[in-house]
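Thread: Modeling a multi-component assembly for a lab meeting

Hi all, long-time lurker, first post. My supervisor asked me to bring a structural picture of a complex we are working on to next week's group meeting, and I have zero experience with this. I have the sequence lines for every component (949 residues in total). Could someone generate the structure of the whole assembly? Inputs are pasted exactly as I received them:
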Amino acid sequence: MSAEENCVATICPYCGIGCNLELHLKGDYIYKVTSPFDNPVNHGNLCVKGRFGYDFVYHKHRVTTPLVRRTPQSAGARTQAFDLSEWQPVSWDEALDLVADRLVEIYRRDGPEALAVYVCAKATNEDNYLLQKLYRSLFRTNNVDHCTRLCHAGSVIALQQAIGSSAMSNTAAELIHPDPRRRPDVLIVTGSNTAENHPIIAQMMKAAVEKYAASLIVVDPRRLELVDYAKLWLPLKPGSNVPVFSAIAKVIIEEGLANRAFIEQRTEGFDEFAQSLEKFTPEYVERVSGVKHDLIQQAARLYASAERGAIYWGMGISQLSHGVASALALIHLAFLTGHIGREGTGLNPLRGQNNVQGSSDMGGMPFHYPGYQRVDNPENAARWEQAWHIEAGGLNRQLGLTTTEILSHAHPGGVRALYMMGENPMMSEPNLNLTRQHMQQLEFLVAQDLFINESGAFADVILPAVSFAEKDGTFTNTERRVQRVRQAIVPRGQARPDWQIICDLALRIEARLGRPTSAGWNYAHPSEILAEVARNVPDYAGITYQRIEKLGLQTPVHDSNHPGTPFLFADSFPRGRGKFYPLDFVTAVEQPDYEYPFILTTGRVLEHWHGGSMTRRSQLDNLYPEALLQIHPLDAEMLGIADGAPVCVASRRGEITLRAQITEKSTVGLVFIPFHFAEAAANLITIDALDPQARIPEFKACAVQLCPARDEDLARPDKRLERGRY
Amino acid sequence: MNDEITLTIDGQAVSVPAGATILQAARSVNIPIPTICFHEATSPLGVCRACVVEVQGWRTLVASCVTPAAAGMVVNTHSERVTRSRRTILEMLASTVDLSEAPEIQLLLQEYAADLQRFPGAERRAIPLLDDNPMYIRDYTRCILCWRCVQVCANDAQYVFALNFSGRGFDTSIATFYDRPMPATTCVFCGQCVGVCPTGALKTKREWLLEKGLLPEEKPAGA
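Re: Modeling a multi-component assembly
Sure thing. I ran the full set together rather than chain by chain. Output:
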């Protein structure tokens, strides 16, 4: 290796698996990514995004100076400006002073409820901790949230209610543990297209099936790749999780397969729950879900009779107007069988973002301080008042607004100023036409980001932040492993690490507010920020940069000698006993009807990420350059749609035109659109119906109509790429 | 507890769990045996024959990476017969494949004093470079058919099965079904194959462009 060549170990910025990367550099130029084969997280395996998707870092659209909108924007009349010519480059001092001035002005005029912030599930723990600290300590507001609300909020609330904690209980690599007594023999994978969205975990699932004879049960409306490896596939109608999993629970109980000892020793509320299952008769369940009783029976017997059964789930469970109930229905199965609290079992929500676990741990939510300490609990508030040098009673003890609510409250008298760190609600919120109206109502909008995305385009000020490759920090992956992110290249232009921007801004705000004490913004290095977290969040107490230099540690890490916790709930649940909740079945809000006869479900594809800010600006886009509507052959034939033909898809809220991809991955009556493509944004069509407790939108089910369209209606009629992958 | 067996390697007694290969046994006591196709993350195959050893009483040399150690075996890892065999394998490889970017094999060529001119007039692999996707190039003039890429694409890692052997004998090559371009195959572009290739036959396109003095279109801002 020549002097110029370097290799930096860091963590992938894409999904929650947290694959370990080795970035190979020549000077400032990353030219290759490898991964150490002995790494326990991903064993040297990567997906296309981790292997090749880093080049967005070098894209010419990177914002490299602070920008102020040339044409002043006003509430009710905001427009988007994507072109640099509409922005004035300014110095950091100017930009941060402007932001501080405006935020303090609005705070003084309208109070804490007028301010809100989106923290970032892609930024580091250190970045997120500081931004929620700023808004809580300086602006005394709990209007702190982010995309976690749109993701596993249903799962998180359910787990907190039933168990008292909300993280994946086990470690992914248990799937392929060489010791058969430590790996699952039965897997339920539901609401997760694991092969595309958590590829390395799907690899392990395939290996578990192929090499270790694990039995796989897939419960999903689509015929996903994992179905090829499944012993059972329950193709349920979107939004019918509660009847299906309740029916499975009923069979487990009726056939005497329940783990009586576990129920008696570790749970409460069983009797009322068992009674509530009466209504889930085979006929009823088949009618509302489409799943035949014999499949329910087989699934129940397989999972209940397992030595170690593990449940993995994704958005198909959570992103519903009854997402909490869906997740509870799953949790009940683990309670009934005792497949929790042991290695090779577990309740495993697969977290999406690279650091959504961390951003949640760091208190990036309206109901919780860091460490999931409720804001409306006076003891918690007092503790953080001390940590942040705030006068007694200073912190807001009221629950704040959630992500979608922050926008729906963006009108005079509600939220007036929004600060977005690495979020793109104009692609990720449901019902984008309505989202646009909300965004336009804001009085002041700041975007701290890498690019001018569809949301930042509305902003008054853009603050250039750095990518994962240009800063130090930590990410916490889906299995609670806190891992080191390392700087490999210098920041582009004048872009700064997020944590530095936040500290600089905080000092300016404090000066204007004239607070008697500072909440503390002087950190020489991100490790000091994590040290502050460790002092105040018991689960992170024993984590230091030194301890995670080679290998991450899985929370809870109780003290500096504690080795971390590969699997949870061995002896008890955080709330004591696990609680059963009687459930009713409620359908998805919008059912197909004569006018809108198809069900639309949305999600991701392997090559892209969410709103596309990163992947549309990467060579990844060359592999999947346009949105594709996945439609079953029979439906396509019925409508006269050929493969690749343009189709207009419309709901009561909006419409888009995109090419059809005829595939058996869809099932009859169901279509799928990925939400990455701004020119055919799936969320223009989706419905903003929220789960009442979790406030998560129902991305997974709404009603649409399809009709053939013309080539000219496509954003890029010339773009077509033949891909052979399923 | 696993059954333990004992064998002799280069005069040294070695105890290993039953099922271990001769290669694993040798490595457990730091006796070096060269390998080319062997990789810690793929199933051993025995296609390169660099790891051959002499087992007393056995007619042929055996590939130590796939041969299970047996109790009472007497193994010689560097006999004259073994050394000559390894040298010939290396000379044959060098006569036909471009090994200029295979540093581990280069070291072996030196260690075994391989005569690079031993097979004058040998036919060189002459396969046009395949540049059919945005992520990586395939330069099969460098390919030694170690099969690692096929394995990681198959059931050693990805379960995608986009690559396999094509043709027979000297004309064997790694290819896709019907030589279709990579995007049109089941390839998911995980790059696992690039990650295990020992000779630079599979290379990221960015690295390839960098070597040619070309950078992809997007230059770093401010550069």
